[in-house]
Amino acid sequence: FVELLEKVESIEFPTAGTFTAPSSLTVSGTNCSTSIPVSITFFNRGDEEFVKDPQTAYHRSGSDLRALLVSHIHGWMEKERKHTAKYNDGDSLNLSYFQTLLSMLSTLDQSGTFNTITSPIVLHHWDLVPRNIMVAPSPSESGLTITGIIDWDDALALPRALARRPADWIWDYNSERSTGYLDTDHHPKTNLDADSLALKAHFDAKAASTLGGGYLEDAYGSGRWLRRIWTFARGGVYSTLYLDLIWLLVKDWEKKLEGEREMASVDMLPEAEKVVPKKAMAVAYKLSTFSRKVGLQRLLQKLRPRRRQR
Q1: What is the DSSP string of 217-232?
Q2: In 62-171, alpha helices (H)
Q3: Smallest Cα–Cα separation from 107: which of 257, 264, 221?
Q4: Beta 17-20 vs 39-41: how paired, if at all?
Q5: What are phi and psi of 174, to 5 degrees?
Q6: How far is CA 270 from the centre of its chain?
Q7: Which of 33, 47, 210, 261 could form a disulfide with 79 if both were Cys (CB 3.0 to 4.6 A apart)?
Q8: pLDDT on residue 182
Q9: Could you give the CA distance from residue 152 to residue 114 in angstroms, rounded to a whole number?
Q10: Is 171 exposed, middle or buried (0-12, 13-18, 19+ CB in 10 A)?
Q11: What stretches in the chain show pLDDT beneath 70?
């Protein structure tokens, strides 16, 4: 499967967007052309006048990942402002959410995220899961060989960091659960058993070795935050599902910032009081994000060093 990902990522494009086939495309009988010319249409969601601006088209080309995300959010904000002014709706909750997304991107930018991420624009199949992967018995060895991929309807040309959603179905397959870009990034499963953890570690190691290009950071680090922001940058916040997801994103972001502040406070302590090393604080932060029952503050209070009695 990693080799398949490598082949998909090797297909690069000059601009980001959606694929459009010729309107005159015809199919005769059971035969069709194996090579169909397509064009790429840049993402045009948001306020119509904003989208028509030539600068918007440049930003949405995807050559600058930060500009791509910011342009989409500004497009939605302009649409929201016009709607609010037209219908006199007062304060807009959606507008405040979009402003929060911009703040997140600014923080990520200040931390150097966009300086370290290299994102060529690659082919992206948003639902690369078992039901869309065709296999056949391997002729030379035991096991299966991937023979084809189906369901390319919503394929995109995306900056690579936005396309590297972890294939969590490999170590956490559930035929009853919906798949797609909303699950892995917004609802990552953390309570994996030993076998699942071992399988995940094996896959991650091979993917990092084969794909390179900062795969692990794209899949699980800053890339995950960027994909979660992209969910709303492209689709807006106009459904109950998306409202729930953006609320979860804001809460997770607050936990991230709180953990970073706590870790930074340790650095300010005198060396004699640093009985608990910074690494232990980092572990406490990670544990807190994996468990909603045990808050970060509670963990840190348990680990915080006490002054020794003379």
Answers
A1: HHHHSHHHHHHHHHHH
A2: 65-87, 93-110, 113-116, 160-163
A3: 257
A4: antiparallel
A5: -145, 110
A6: 38
A7: 47
A8: 60
A9: 29
A10: buried
A11: 23-37, 89-91, 175-183, 266-310
